[in-house]
From TrEMBL:
Organism: Vibrio brasiliensis LMG 20546
Molecular function (Gene Ontology), one example: acyltransferase activity, transferring groups other than amino-acyl groups
Superkingdom to which the source organism belongs: Bacteria
Domain N-acetyltransferase: from-to ranges: 3-160
CDD domains associated with the record: NAT_SF
Name recorded for this polypeptide: Putative acetyltransferase
Keywords: Transferase
Length: 160
């Protein structure tokens, strides 16, 4: 089994979009207020750029793109970033890819000078929530002001 993690490139956009929408549907994240409906999903490589203090990493397993994870400023904040769009195909779960992708994104956030990282997700994404807790994210009672994902029901924050 060969795993590679790379910065997203335009050639990855279609596969990443397909994965985000399929995994989103698997967990009921369909329609407005959920990450898979964000306009950036159609061209992730254009949205996540170093110039924007953002990053999206793509995981490849034996030559096949199986998912990814990103980080970007939250609501144009200089101090708060958001861990975004951690989506993995079922066959790639349980291999430590989500942890590795998240850690690399959080390392990037620290390098960019962010002091905290926010995320929102769904109660149905139990494995992801467990991972976030292990990474040091704390549950919030409500979303941060400015969140775009009004349909998410779990909100978390980590001090970097």
């Amino acid at each position: 089994m060969t795993v590679e993690i790379d910065l997203i490139q335009p050639r990855h956009d279609e596969d990443v979009r397909t994965i985000i929408k399929a995994v989103g549907a698997e967990f009921g994240a369909i329609g407005e207020g959920f990450g898979p409906s964000d306009p950036e999903v159609d061209a992730m490589s254009q949205y996540y750029t170093l110039e924007k203090r953002s990053l999206y990493l793509v995981a490849t397993l034996d030559g096949k793109i199986v998912g990814g994870c990103g980080v970007a400023p939250f609501n144009n904040s200089q101090q708060t970033c958001e861990l975004k769009k951690l989506f993995l195909l079922p066959e790639s779960r349980g291999l430590g890819l989500g942890k590795k992708l998240s850690e690399l994104c959080l390392d990037f956030a620290v390098q960019q000078g962010f002091s905290e990282c926010y995320l929102d997700t769904l109660t149905s994404m139990k494995s992801a929530i467990h991972l976030y807790e292990k990474l040091g994210f704390q549950h919030l009672d409500q979303p941060l002001d400015g969140t775009e994902h009004s349909s998410c029901d779990v909100w978390m924050l980590k001090q970097l």
